[in-house]
Amino acid sequence: MAGAAPRPWTDAEESLARRMAGADILSVRQFTADELVTLLDLVARFEGAQRPVLQGKVLAALFFEPSTRTRLSFESAMARLGGACLGFADAGVSSTTKGESLSDTIRMAECYADVIVIRHPREGAARVAADSTGIPIINGGDGSNQHPTQTLLDLYTIRRRCGRLDGLRIGFLGDLKYGRAAHSLIEAVGMLGNQIVLVAPDALKLPAQRVDELRQHKVSFVETGDLDGALPGLDVLYVTRIQQERFGDPLEFQRVRDAYQVDAATLDRGKAGMIVMHPLPRVNEIHPSMDASPQAAYFEQARNGVTVRKAVLALLLGARP
Ligand code: NCD
Predict the structure, then answer these.
(1) Rounded mean pLDDT, 99-103
(2) Tell me, what's the pLDDT at 2?
(3) 9 pLDDT higher than 60
(4) Mind listing the pLDDT tens digit for each residue in 122-143?
(5) Residue 205 annotated among the catalytic residues of the structure
(6) Which residues does 255 contact at the CB level (< 8 Å), separation at least 6?
């Protein structure tokens, strides 16, 4: 039996795809709420895509900070669409150690590749990279600031699991001070019209400037230190790792390192269908006893990362599935 005819492209998909060809992805804020939804519709078209639409294209993956999922999923996405990758996973082996500027490194990568994904400890580094080259730059995480493709895979997972992207009550647990995955996703789910519950110990609360931005954008949110009090209303619990590498004072980290942990019993105290997400890597904030639960969505997030990055790479390079 023949499969269903492919869904024709909507005007919104056509126009977003046109706008993304040759563009950068630096922040979730470059998209409106409607565009984020349209972008996820485009991502869905890349589910299982294997056609070599990126044959002859090269991705430079420049990672100045550790990564497993982001780098490997970008490389996997490129390989599955017929493209190739080069780059470094450790800035210690690049000419940065000889004093080369970020801008010069980017100008070199531009000679060897068609698109660049960069991860860097400095906030704003992806913007600096974008200003140094004409080829598309993807922000794979800049300090505590943004991680937009992580947000896309998080939104994609939420939509698949919860059936919608608005009117949800989404709890963020953990390091809301330094976590860029949380920072990006909080902005996006706020724009999309969800209620946000920020659960963090005092030392790890969302920075005041970000709280002000939520107020300015009229996002519905509450702040609390009490997970058990927050749990019963949540549709999604987004757990984050304490970002040890961002603490200036190791004692400050020691004080909060075991501040929270969720496990299989946490699920019993929440709504029946609540899903638990985590950008990974986890350290001790999600006990492995939760992994077997159908409510655990974190490994699925990582899997969806490949589909999202296939779509992002293809769209920036002007290709279609
Ligand atoms: C996150 C990151 O690097 O910001 N990891 C990821 O990309 N999945 C989260 C983290 O390191 O805690």
Answers:
(1) 93
(2) 54
(3) yes
(4) 999 999 999 999 999 999 999 9
(5) no
(6) 203
Tell me, yes or no, if 98 is annotated catalytic: yes
Coil/strand/helix, residue 92:
helix
- Mean of pLDDT values over 239-263: 95
Q: How many CA atoms does the CB half-sphere of 156 hold within 13 Å? A: 30
The alpha carbon of 303 and the centre of ligand 1 are apart by a number of angstroms equal to 15
- For residue 241 and ligand 1, the question of a CB distance below 6 A is answered with yes
Give the nearest ligand 1 atom to 119 CA.
3
pLDDT value of position 11: 98
Task: Give CATH superfamily name and number for 12-146+304-316.
Answer: Aspartate/ornithine carbamoyltransferase (3.40.50.1370)
The three-state secondary structure class of 100 is: coil
Pocket test for ligand 1, best of 142, 186, 280 (most atoms within 8 A of CB): 280
Query: What is the DSSP annotation of 155-176?
Result: HHHHHHHHS-SSS-EEEEES-T
Instruction: State whether the beta carbon of 279 lies less than 6 angstroms from ligand 1.
Output: yes
Note the pLDDT tens digit of each residue in 278-294. Answer: 999 999 999 999 999 99
Which class is 148-302 in CATH? alpha beta
Q: How far is the CA of 281 from the centre of ligand 1 (A)?
A: 6
Q: Do domains 12-146+304-316 and 148-302 have the same CATH topology?
A: yes
| Domain residue spans of the chain | 12-146+304-316, 148-302
Instruction: Select from 172, 178, 180 the residue to mutate for testing ligand 1; criterion: most ligand atoms less than 8 Å from CB.
Output: 180
Known catalytic residue at 119? yes
For residues 257 and 204, give the distance between their C-alpha atoms in angstroms, rounded to a whole number. 11
Chain center to CA of 55: 26
- CB-facing half-sphere around the CA of 277: CA atoms within 13 A: 29
Question: Could you tell me if the CB of 278 is within 6 A of ligand 1?
Answer: no
